[in-house]
What we know:
Elements: H1 2-16, E1 24-30, E2 33-35, E3 38-41, E4 45-51, E5 60-61, E6 65-66, E7 75-80, E8 84-89, E9 97-102
Parallel strand pairs: 1-4, 3-9
Antiparallel strand pairs: 1-2, 4-7, 5-6, 8-9
Amino acid sequence: xxxxxxxxxxxxxxxxxxxxxxxxxxxxxxxxxxxxxxxxxxxxxxxxxxxxxxxxxxxxxxxxxxxxxxxxxxxxxxxxxxxxxxxxxxxxxxxxxxxxxxx
Length: 103
């Protein structure tokens, strides 16, 4: 487990470098909802989406980012390099909505 955490830390450092690599956010997917529904982060923050549900889910902003299909226990990390509001959905369950606000 520690080796996997170390590998993620190295990957994040390579992606962003500098102080931005230390900034992280977290979104859980459970009960067909994103928690938190709205996440406020700083520019350069890496946000990790973790599926804690029994169903597969995505976090997708068309043309901007996609986690791909995540099975229970899987996670994906997206780095937000630009300011703005990013509204996303689950492509499998489009009634699921979330928002990342990058300031």
